[in-house]
Amino acid sequence: MKCYECSKNGKTSDTVAICIVCGRGVCKQHLVREDSPVLEGEYSIKLKCGMGVECKYEDVQHIKKILCIPCHEALKENY
Q1: What are the strands, taking DSSP E only, across the chain?
Q2: Model pTM above 0.85
Q3: If both were cysteines, with which of 9, 23, 55, 76 could 59 make a disulfide (CB 3.0 to 4.6 Å apart)?
Q4: Cα separation of 18 and 27, whole Å?
Q5: pLDDT higher than threshold 90 for residue 55
Q6: Alpha helices of 1-79 — where are they, by DSSP H?
Q7: How far apart are CA 64 and CA 2, in angstroms?
């Protein structure tokens, strides 16, 4: 998969992560990885904590999340 932001600029860079908000593939140059504010509601995916046990929503609140730069900027406006 190629980076969405790079492809808009006519470049081709391999994706190293997926934005947790919009789902775009991003390269190292176009991602932000940091603690982000707690989002209300649940993610549409269910995480497995191990041994087949499903994680609770509270279990994923304090992990660093990867966002593309446009989504990160939009979230910062609303912190």
Answers
A1: 17-18, 25-26, 31-34, 48-50, 53-54, 65-68
A2: no
A3: 55
A4: 9
A5: no
A6: 4-8, 69-77
A7: 23
